[in-house]
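Worked example 3 (structure in, sequence out).
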């Protein structure tokens, strides 16, 4: 059982391995990183706040006309984010972001909130940051899904820090509405992570999720059993993944 309770604690401990995976296989999660900008219709001229941003991996999937602001509470990630400190990247808690009210046309949050214990405060902060009519997009592992079972089962058993994600379900609608957001929509989004071969898939997955109690063959077997894979036409392999996409809007 791990002693870490928040995104900050967890990734302060294993952020280097996570970043190394994203650096060495930048295209593996391309479909996932492109998801929220596509769903929200992000366009040139938009100000987009990414929280938590990790190492700012989303930035390379945006057109140059989008102003990207990365927010992350973990120093290891903050240092990797593109932009200038204090303007285009901020090192701060997700519920106390150092930006003015109504800064953003779009706020996005990809796969980091299941490690946060106080979502109401974070959603209230997202509402504050959005301009009237601004759009929020959250993509998270859904409670009861195959990725949830993989993370809280296999990864939890094979990571010496554990993995106890608080995954999202329909109850998130009430939290977003309580924060003042409207037009809340939830939709499942099947995805694939793509690799050159099973060995690359195993190394990437182990680094991303901090797996240190299982070898590559065990990781490949766990992925096959709990998530599934398929061969690609170019000789590579695709690992099946799935996220719950949640969108909402600030009135006005």
């Amino acid at each position: 059982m791990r002693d870490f309770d928040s995104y900050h604690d967890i990734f302060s401990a294993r952020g280097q391995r996570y970043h190394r995976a994203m650096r060495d296989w930048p295209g593996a999660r391309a479909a996932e990183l492109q998801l929220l900008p596509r769903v929200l219709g992000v366009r040139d001229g938009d100000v987009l706040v990414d929280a938590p941003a990790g190492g700012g991996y989303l930035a390379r999937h945006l057109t140059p006309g989008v102003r990207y602001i990365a927010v992350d509470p973990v120093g290891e990630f903050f240092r990797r984010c593109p932009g200038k400190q204090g303007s285009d990247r901020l090192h701060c808690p997700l519920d106390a972001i150092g930006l003015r009210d109504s800064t953003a046309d779009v706020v996005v949050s990809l796969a980091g909130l299941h490690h946060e214990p106080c979502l109401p405060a974070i959603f209230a902060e997202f509402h504050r940051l959005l301009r009237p009519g601004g759009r929020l997009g959250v993509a998270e592992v859904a409670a009861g899904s195959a990725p949830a079972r993989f993370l809280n089962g296999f990864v939890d058993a094979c990571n010496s820090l554990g993995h106890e994600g608080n995954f999202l379900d329909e109850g998130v609608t009430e939290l977003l509405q309580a924060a003042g957001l409207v037009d809340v929509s939830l939709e499942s989004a099947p995805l694939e992570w793509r690799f050159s071969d099973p060995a690359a898939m195993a190394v990437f997955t182990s680094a991303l999720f901090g797996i240190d109690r299982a070898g590559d063959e065990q990781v490949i077997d766990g992925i096959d059993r709990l998530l599934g894979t398929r061969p690609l036409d170019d000789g590579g392999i695709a690992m099946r993944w799935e996220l719950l996409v949640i969108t909402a809007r600030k009135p006005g």
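Notes: Residues 7-142+165-193+241-249 form a domain with the Rossmann fold fold (CATH 3.40.50.150). The radius of gyration is 17 Å.
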